[in-house]
Amino acid sequence: MQIKNLPTPCYVYDRAVIEKRCRDLKTYFPGVKIFYAVKANSNPELLKIIRKEGLGIECVSPGEIRAGQAAGMTKEKISFTCSNLSESDLVFAARNAGYVHIDSLVQLETWGKKKLGRDVSLRINEGIGTGHHRHVVTGGPDSKFGISLKDLPAARKIVKKYGLRVVSLEQHIGSNVLDKDADIFLKSVRKLLRSAEEFPEVRHVDFGGGFGIPYRPTDRALNLKTLGKEFTSLTNAFAEKRGGKVTFALEPGRYVVAESGTLLTTVVDMKSTSKHQFVGVNSGFNHLIRPAMYGSYHPIENLSRKGTKKTVTIAGNVCESGDIFATHRSIVAPKIGDVLAIGNAGAYGMSMASVYNLRELPREFILEKGKAREITFSPEARVRTKK
Ligand SMILES: Cc1ncc(COP(=O)(O)O)c(C=O)c1O
């Protein structure tokens, strides 16, 4: 299958890559419950593949829970955490998710007052955060997520007031942990386990997601095997102290789907200024916002020809100057009509896409055994709740 023949703009995902990533996680983190973070990509067909691989899902909204249910995820396969939740969303999560990680004292109070269950899980901000951009650092003093350590005494009071039991702890420190960040991740694992020691009834500890992928040619990939070994020795030691009666979880999103996805776009215009040779394409930050939002790098390849390279700036069709996929990038000199492949776009691409400028969302395809099958879906139906 020549993916350059698919109608652009479109996303194309490679099924084999998703399956491989799921299997690697199961191999290197044996016995760990893996909840795929739906926010990375919520296409129903991808969720079905992930379910078939035995993973659960991590959700942050009723819409994501419904997407998981439609893909066949059962309650115990659904983990939920969200900051700034309305009461009705918390009630929905309590009824539909097997694990609900409480993000604030206000949520904890609601949980107790509404009698949502005796057992409760707390999302903790241990003060450690990391990430590829400050917007995705989700631990530490600038993060809006989780219950800070200083608030734990107040949390204990609420727990006591409503006769609750803290049976689980969760944290998520940030996104795109690469080899260089593995130590921070492990430090956060140790810290959360230390907190868990303070809660004798804890029988589940969830260390969140964040596993990264190498976007730039110079990035060093996370060594999952080494990380898995160190993680396992820490969790085994804790489990031993608890007589084995404890489960552990992870919530990877990006790692599962990022490298499976490519955004295909066609060159439709060219122009130059004193600084740039612009190549204009029929997509934009409405379809892949990561470069505009985080300054992210995505590999870009000209699928239509081979030959001499040229340094160009690849711009989208959104009516904003920041709509740039790559600045001064060397690619095979494109001509109008050429198809460009923007790689590593399977995570936080389509799921963050919008209809800004009232342009259509890209179509979606999945490559299976060399054939492309269309899996375009409209998220609208799942997002809207009946009033
Ligand atoms: C609570 C939680 N878990 C997991 C993830 C997944 O992160 P990643 O895609 O970096 O693995 C996120 C991402 O924001 C998150 O907020």
Task: Describe the protein's architecture and organization.
The protein is α/β, with parallel strands linked by helices. The protein folds into two domains: 3-9 and 259-383, Lyase, Ornithine Decarboxylase, Chain A, domain 1; 31-252, TIM Barrel (Alpha-Beta Barrel). Helix content is 28%, strand content 24%. It has eleven helices and 18 strands. It has helices at residues 15-28, 44-52, 62-70, 87-96, 105-113, 152-161, 182-197, 224-241, 254-257, 290-294, 380-383; strands at residues 10-14, 33-37, 56-59, 78-81, 99-102, 119-125, 147-148, 165-170, 204-206, 247-250, 261-272, 277-281, 300-302, 309-315, 324-332, 339-342, 363-368, 371-374. Strands 1, 11, 12, 13, 14, 15, 16, 17 and 18 form a nine-stranded mixed beta sheet that branches. Strands 2-3-4-5-6-8-9-10 form an eight-stranded parallel β-barrel, surrounded by five helices. Helix 5 (105-113) runs parallel beside helix 6. The mean pLDDT is 95. Pyridoxal-5'-phosphate binds next to helix 9.
Please tag this protein with its features.
alpha/beta; 11 helices; 24% strand; nine-stranded mixed sheet; 2 domains; binds pyridoxal-5'-phosphate; TIM Barrel; single chain; elongated; Lyase, Ornithine Decarboxylase, Chain A, domain 1; 387 residues; eight-stranded parallel β-barrel
